Every structure is written in C-alpha cells, then in structure tokens.
Amino acid sequence: MTGKGQARMRPESVEALAEIIRLTDMPLSPVGGGTRLRPGEGQGARIETGRLSGVTHYEPEALTLVVRAGTSLQAVQELLASEGQMLAFEPDGRAGSTIGGVVAANASGPRRVQAGACRDALIGVQFVDGRGEIIRNGGRVMKNVTGYDLVKLMAGSRGTLGVLTECAFKTAPIPQVSLTLALPDLEAGPAVAALTRALTGPFDVSGAGWLPERGALIRLEGLEGSVAIRRQTLAARLEGFGGLVEVPGMNWADLVPEARGGDLWRITCQPTEAPALLAALPEPLALDWGGALIWVELPPGEMPVLPSWSGQAQRVRGTEPALVPPMNSIVARLNRDLRARFDPRGILVGEG
Amino acid sequence: MQMPEPDGAIIARRVEIAALLRAAVPDAVIDDPAETRAYECDALSAYRCPPLAVVLPATTEEVAAVLRICHREGVPVVPRGAGTSLAGGSMPTADAVVIGLARMNAVLEADYDNRFIRVQTGRTNLSVSGAVDGAGFFYAPDPSSQLACAIGGNIGMNSGGAHCLKYGVTTNNLLAVKLVLMDGQIVDLGGPMGEAAGLDLLGVVCGSEGQLGIVTEATLRILPKPAGARPVLVAFDASETAGACVAAIIRAGILPVAIEFMDRPCIRATEAFAQAGYPDCEALLIIEVEGTPPEIAEQLQLIRQIAEGFSPVEFRESRSEEESRRIWLGRKSAFGAMGQINDYMCLDGTIPVSALPQVLGGIARLSAEFGLEVANVFHAGDGNMHPLILYDANKPGDLERCEEFGAEILKLCVEVGGCLTGEHGVGVEKRELMTTQFTLTDLEAQMRVKDVFDPQWLLNAAKVFPLSVSASRREGRNDRKGTSAHAA
C-alpha cells in the first residue's frame, strides 16, 4: 500500500508519537490499517498506529470497552464475542482495519437505523493533536456531559485534527436471534417505500437495506419469541409488497460495497428523496439505512447530476475528491478554523 | 459562587443598549429592573443576578439581529431555554443580555416517513412527544423536568433521562440544528441521519452549554411507539445486592429500557409524600421492558430468574396500567418528595457500574463526616447517580457544607473512573471541579473550539471552565472588540 519513497513511522508509545509530531515539519498522514482512505488522502509520510495496540479495560457488566487505537477491528470483535457482546454500532469488517481507523472514518453500518453510528457508541478518546499534545476527552462511562464533546469531533475527523491513540466504546449484547427477511422482487425505488413501512412500525428493525441480487432486506433481532412475533406482524404490514422470505446466513457487511472499476459514490438523503435521486442514477450497488444511504458507481471522473435534495453526495473511491453540493461557506470556515487550532502548522494532511 | 466582575462600562450603557435592541426587535425587550428579576436565576436558585436586559425573540432572524448588536457592542450574552438548568447554565451576569427562547415554540414540520420532527427550540421536551403521539411516534430523551424544560436547553446540556439506557441521550437523537453564531451568522449543521461532510460540528455543538452559538431550530429523530411497556419493582435488603443484580441482568444480555435505583432514605421520603405502596427495604430497582404482551412476558421471565439469584425481598410485577403507574409514582415524585422535607442539592456524577458498592460506601462515610443526610436515586443501568444531599438553607453555613460534601462525592466519582456530570451539565456549579477530571491541556483543547465559534468569548463565557483557566480569554474580550471573527 505504501507508495514508493514514502516515509513510514510506527511509534511504540503515545509519548513517542507526540514527539514525532512535535519535531517534524513534513506533512503526515495518520493511518490505521489504511483500508478506508479516500481520494486525496494518505499523501503525506505515513504515521501508523499498529504498535499502539491492546485492550486497556473491558467491563462487560458495564457494557464498556477501552482499547488502543491500533488494535485490529477483528481482535476487538473476537474479544467481545467471547463474552457474548459486540460493539454497539456495526462497522463493516474490512481485512486489516484498525479500531482507530474505524473511528476516524465514523464507519457505521446497517445498525445505524436502530443503534446509531460509530460516533454514538464512542464514549471516550485519547489523541495527539497537530501540536503534539496528548489530549483526553470523554471517558469510560455511558453518560457524560462533562465539558465539550470532542469525542464526536474526533469521530469521522479522518486524521485531520490529530492521531487517535485510544478509544472507549459502549458495547451491546449479541442478540439471541438475528433474522433477515427479504422482499426479493423489489427494485431499488419501490424498496424504499417497503423499508419505510417497516421502519415506521414498532418492529425495532436493526437493518433496512437493498441489494441488486437480493431485493429489500430487513433485519429483526432479539429474544426468540419476540422475533417470531415481530416477523408475523411485519409480514402483515408489508403484504402489499409481495411475500417476505427468510434469507439464511445473510452477511450484512455486504451492504457496504466496493467499487468494480469505476468511482464509488456515497449519497445521503431523506428516504422519501431517494426515488427521485435513484431515477437520475444508474442502478445502485446498495441502499442502506432505509434508503437514507445510496451507494452507486459512476464512470471514472464523472459527476452525478441530481435534482436538489437535503443530503450530500461524496466520491469515496476514485482519483479526485468530490462533494455535491459543495460545503456551505460558513461550515467550511468553521472546519478550516478548527483544523487550524488543532494543527496550526497544517502538517496533518487529509483531503482537500 | 464566584462570578467575574461585571463590566461597569456596559452596565452604564444599559438604557442605550436596550434602545438599540428595541429598534431591532420591538416588543421583545425587557429592561425594567423589576421585570428582569424574573430571569435572575434558573433551577440552581441559590445563586441569582438580574441581567442587563432580556430579549425574547420570535424568529431566527431576530435572534441573529440581537446577536449582531451584542457582538458589535461587545455585550455578553446568556442564552436561556426554559430556565430549568440545575447547574446554573442560564444564570446571568449583570452586564449580560439574556436571550430567552420562550416565544419560539412552534412545530415547523413533522415528517413520519422520514422519522423526524423539526421544532423551534423554545418548545418543551414533553410537547415534542405530544405533537407526534397521535401518529404513533415519540421523542426518546425524557429528562425528569420534561414538562418544563426546552429543547434548546436539552441540546445545550445534552440532556438524558430514565430511558436512555436503550435510546441514548439528546446527542444520539439530534439530526440537525439551525445555529446562530455570536456574530449573527446563521448556519445549518447536520443533515439526513445527522450526517454532513466534514467535521461533526453538530456533535460538538450539542452539550456545549450555549457557549458556541444559539440553536433556534432542531430536527429531532422520532421513533414508533413500542406496543407496550411494563415495569417491575424488585426490593432488596442491601444496596450492594441491588447493584450486583443490575450487573447480572446486563451481563445476561438483557437490555431493559430503564433500570432505576432508590435507597431507603429516598423510599421513606417518597412513601410519606406519594404513598406509592413501596415495600419496606434497603434498596429497590424499577426495571422497565417494552414490547407486545408476549414479548414483555419473555423478558420479565428472564429478569425474574436472574433477580431470584439475589434473594429479593419482593419481586412485584405490574398486572395493570394502574399498578404500572403506582410503581413509577414513587420514582417520579422522588425529587418533589425530598423538596417537601428539606432543601436539597442534586448531584449528577456517573460511575462505572462495577464501582457502585464502593461509591455508595464512600457516600455513606462522607455523610457521617459532614453530618448531612443523603438520599440516593439514580439511573442504575448506565451508572448515572443522583445523590440528593439534604440541608437547611436557613441554617448559616449549611449550604457551604453541602457544597463541600457534594464536591467530595464528585471527586470520588472521577477517582473510580467516572465523571462529574452525566446529564445536567457543568454550568457554574461544577466549573471549578473541572481540573479534577481534565488536565489543563485537555481544557485548552476544548476552549480552542470556543475560540473558533465565539472568538470574543461573549457567549455564556463564565461557565464550564474554571474561571482562572478561562480568564485570559474572557478578559481579552475588550481588546479584541471589533476585530475580525476570522482572526487566527
């Protein structure tokens, strides 16, 4: 993955990392597993967190986990599973991902419709900012409003404010039963209406998406008897959309697709806006979050032409970064000024 | 409570400043000292200070106009929702203009297919759920003060409630806001699913205690109402046993929507006040589960099995709406009941659930040491404690002793790995304790965020950060007056 001649640093401790940042004057690209880089990212000398790994604290009865940022996502998931638990959000499992990378990308899969995003399960962080200062925020308890919530600011900050060194999470019990149901005949547009029907009733849906070869997908989880009851009432509610069929062994990580040669675009919208957007796009690779997230592939370099809507479209694989519509000028100024405060020398390079 | 010396030059210009405000927003300015007195405090009523003036705008544009004037004139501003802060979050200073959201209480849009409601932020928490109830939806965060507290204040403090074990706190249910910056610029943050490109500005604004801007509109996530809900009451002969039972329930993979804890002093007081019919015991838990009747039965059976391992004094399952109401009655009237017999101070630290026995023991020891009684009532599932320290406001020195005692309890919460405040906010009340939880570097990082949003430190400035830590920024205010908000 590393480009020719590109420097790599793998500090052994948080203090060593802080010193590197303080002393360097070259552009740095913080990298976890390097599995989620977007166009334009990763151009500086790579500063990798792989040696800052291991679990600091795990308290299953408090549903809390503290882990160093360079720990592999897989190791975290295995540890939690051994105690019958999981992360309270649902990151997609790319091989080689670190937990810090997941946080820096705010990688949040299908469960977002029910349990929230990575940023919602993240309860504490330690990071080294662009000045080389070691900063803590949040903690290891679920409810905490002490001071500003820099935890949220760090989630999804993509290495532009600092390098994450430790993350604390809310965990959740693995549900006794997980059932995936499909409406296989639905195209993407009509699928959104079916998913909306499911999400607006008392079914506690934990996944609502669409895949070209599978149709609309709905996940129900919980105690065995409860799932069986909800399955029945949901089937009655969705009668007008064709029969619900069970999909055994569904891998919900498939809802986060990879591009197949073109550029991968990620579009957020209100579900009721999705049909009009879909009509202006090629068939999507996937829909998630009940239609609030559209994954679509476009020819390299092409920009989508879309009717005006309330969300944003972002190119996440391709050569050039792109965002439609562009960021509002005040939001852009706040972003720029925050980066300048945490990284006054501008050495942490991200996109744009 | 120490507050910074108000700016005499601003106080001297009261009439002129009020006239400027009145020219921009006629009929919305209160500057008669007899009337501004109504805004001299919030629910931390031991501390009071009438503001310079109060403005009650009706629109976002009016909020922006007021802020532009205050920004230009260098006048401090204190935002106010419904004034229910227990931490002094909306306590004014003598040189500040209070901007109250009371008149901005409209529902702007209820969108059931997309599962959100957009409201003006002066609207009360309970009336948000009320607005969508008929369509079968609700807004999840439910602070005890939900009848009175405003959504704007909920966003400022990132409020929680009894049911956040399952549904999260305000920040997890907030999708977008309209924010007016101190210089009067209006900006939309967030978007569908709460997401927007770039940094999570919505996330850092929520819980920033009115120091980054004034939120005038909020888009809130609404959820379909569950088919039903039912509480059980489990009584124990020791607080530690109740705590161990909570841990065992969570460990078993059951996630009730609420687990509430009350100890004997609290049970005694609420019985005398509300006659909920609680058993005579050292501690009790109220555990609520949701779903259709068979789903409820399935969960309660598991909870009963676990609880029986801890030899409860009683396991009381509700069989009717009326029994459910009675189980919740004591818990919901706990604060009122304590207020009936005493003055009290309500703390709000959060601890890791495993530290519960240690912290309860520590509180009992401190209670004996300070000679003040404590009643414990709290959200046990997430470790958010609400010890109520009883004192007598008419007894000289009692309030000060109570505050010292409270500070010791909060330090204990931090020592065991917890935090100073789980849902009430720092305000002025816990400002000086911030250095027990954070290093100066940590606090500096937080203050840099305020530097970006409010470079002159005019908004609610004497809150959250210890006065000595924020002094140079607050006092630099006058020198920076009129300089660009964009200066690095």
TrEMBL record, chain A:
Gene3D superfamilies named among the record's database cross-references: 3.30.465.10
Name by which UniProt lists this protein: Glycolate oxidase FAD binding subunit
Organism superkingdom: Bacteria
Family matches, as Pfam families: FAD_binding_4
Record-annotated FAD-binding PCMH-type domain positions: 1-174
Matches recorded under PROSITE patterns: FAD_PCMH (PS51387)
InterPro entries, per the entry: FAD-bd_PCMH, FAD-bd_PCMH-like_sf, FAD-bd_PCMH_sub2, FAD-linked_Oxase-like_C, Oxid_FAD_bind_N
Membrane-spanning parts: none
GO molecular function: catalytic activity; FAD binding
Organism of provenance: Paracoccus sulfuroxidans
Keywords: FAD, Flavoprotein
TrEMBL record, chain B:
Domain of life: Bacteria
Annotated keywords: FAD, Flavoprotein, Oxidoreductase
Residues annotated as domain FAD-binding PCMH-type: 47-225
PROSITE patterns: FAD_PCMH (PS51387)
Cofactor: FAD
Residue stretches spanning the membrane: none
Entry keyword annotation includes Aminoacyl-tRNA synthetase: no
InterPro entries: FAD-bd_oxidored_4_C, FAD-bd_PCMH, FAD-bd_PCMH-like_sf, FAD-bd_PCMH_sub2, FAD-linked_Oxase-like_C, FAD-linked_OxidoTrans_Type4, Oxid_FAD_bind_N, Vanillyl_alc_oxidase_C-sub2
Listed GO MF terms: FAD binding; oxidoreductase activity
Protein name: Glycolate oxidase
